Amino acid sequence: MKAFELSMFVTLELAHRFMKVLVVGGGGREHALAWKLGQSPKVREVFVAPGNAGTASEATNVDISATDVPALVEFAKTNAIDLTVVGPEAPLVAGLVDALEDAGLRAFGPSAAAAELEGSKVFCKNLLRTADVPTADYQTFRNAGDASRYIKDKYPEIGDPAPVVVKADGLAAGKGVIVCQTREDALEAIDRIAAQKEFGEAGNELIIEERLMGQEASVLAITDGETIISLPAAQDHKPAFDGDTGPNTGGMGAYCPTPIVDEEMFEKIERDVLVPVVHAMKRARKPFKGVLYAGLMLTNKGPKVLEFNVRFGDPECQPLLMRLQSDLFDILVAAADGRLAEIGQLDWDERPSICVVMASEGYPGSYEKGREITGLAQAAEVPDVKVFHAGTKLDEGQVVNDGGRVLGVTAIGNSISNAKLQAYTAVQKIRWPGAWCRKDISDKAL
User: Fold this and answer.
1) pLDDT by residue, tens only, the chain of 446 residues
2) What is the C-alpha separation between 293 and 187, in angstroms, rounded?
């Protein structure tokens, strides 16, 4: 290599090494993303908008709402941000990635059109049917009256078992899905979603689908619309209480990998779910770039899709990134630039990881904020543990709860049982009035 060519190579490499990244969002997923991106030797500075008390200690928080698209674009332009990573679904559906790209900025995440895969459950189900991807049988409705008549015709007697799931079509912060046991449960769910509009405009349409039985699993993949890199399977815990009882939540904990998804099943999910959906989105002229998250039920007839999300799951993101050894910045930039094929296989820590969510008293219902959290420093001293903040903020220098899901205590260990022990050892050191968590995260794997 000639001297001037070497000099140019070094200059370009140095220019590439010191990048500025903006992570949009303020939950545990965004704390994990900021933490992992900050480990890249190519990243000079990480900003998080709006962030939380945890991101404040590892990045620079920016007081901009995750859904304030004009302000986020202006910040990215003014600060010469090299990569914006959009965490939550709402700004993706609102078109943040489109706005950033229109401004000549690099962004990781799907367009608003592609984000409809999560933004509309009706669109998602219809696409799955078109692509012949296995999913539950379903019916869609535009009003409570038609939906109620359907249930009454199908289950005519009071007290009839009605193993169905009623879902609001739009975004409902993970709460617009109601699992029903009886005819009365279903009618009440329809009333809440479509008549009382408990979840707002998300209930302008609704889906009633058969209830699938089995264990749930999540398989996430990063794609640039052409190449797909699948991530190890994880298992979330949606119901609030031990033994998968109680109301659905945004997720009370997760672990990775999950033994129930063996190599044969993983390949089947890639072949029968992920690849057909990417192709179907391209045919629908909504090419997908970003994280494709398949929420699956592993039935006795094989894996079936419960839902698709268009971003990293929270809390699945935390144990996944705890194990990732490849440079996350390189991966996301390659996906954003349409050259994911250059990345090759990712490197993973072979040890399993588990995330336990600590929540506020009353969640997923109403809860009090502003309660001081203690023991974080002691928890951080537990070996192989990282405490990711979700619903926290700083109040006069003190960390207080500011959401329903407050912390994601994440540990890695030589076995799932060892990772669980480390995570719950750290959990026991953290206190605030009303703090609680499930005690059985990862037990299904054991």
Assistant:
1) 333 343 343 334 444 558 999 999 999 999 999 999 999 999 999 999 999 999 999 999 999 999 999 999 999 999 999 999 999 999 999 999 999 999 999 999 999 999 999 999 999 999 999 999 999 999 999 999 999 999 999 999 988 899 999 999 999 877 789 999 999 999 999 999 999 999 999 999 999 999 999 999 999 999 999 999 999 999 999 999 999 999 889 999 999 999 999 999 999 999 999 999 999 999 999 999 999 999 999 999 999 999 999 999 999 999 999 999 999 999 999 999 999 999 999 999 999 999 999 999 999 999 999 999 999 999 999 999 999 999 999 999 999 999 999 999 999 999 999 999 999 999 999 999 999 999 999 999 98
2) 30
User: Which residues neighbour 419 within 8 Å (Cβ) at sequence distance 6 or greater?
Assistant: 255, 351, 352, 353, 354, 384, 411, 412, 413, 442
Residue 218 Cα to chain centre, angstroms:
10
* Dihedral over alpha carbons 34, 39, 45, 48 (to 10 degrees): 0
With respect to CATH, is domain 143-204 assigned 2.40.300.10? no
What is the edge-to-edge ordering of all strands in the sheet holding 206-210? 138-141, 206-210, 164-168, 177-179
Question: What values do phi and psi take at 332, rounded to 5?
Answer: -70, -35
Helices (H), 196-354: 263-269, 275-283, 317-323, 328-337
Three-class SS state of 14: helix
Assigned fold of 20-109 = Rossmann fold (3.40.50)
Closest CA to 354 of 329, 325, 318: 318
- Separation CA 329–CA 342 (nearest Å): 14
To which H or E segment does residue 138 belong?
strand 138-141
Q: Report the sign of the C-alpha dihedral through residues 298, 295, 217, 334, in that order.
A: positive
Supply the DSSP string of 77-101, one letter for each residue. Answer: HHTT-SEEEE-SHHHHHTTHHHHHH
Q: Enter the pTM of the model.
A: 0.93
Of the candidates 318, 309, 340, 351, the one whose C-alpha atom is nearest the C-alpha of residue 32 is 318
**Location of each CATH 3.40.50.20 domain in the chain:** 20-109
- The one-character DSSP state at 373 is P
Tell me the β-bridge partners of 385. Answer: 411
- Fold assignment, 215-445: D-amino Acid Aminotransferase; Chain A, domain 1 (3.30.470)
How many angstroms separate the first and last alpha carbons of the chain? 56
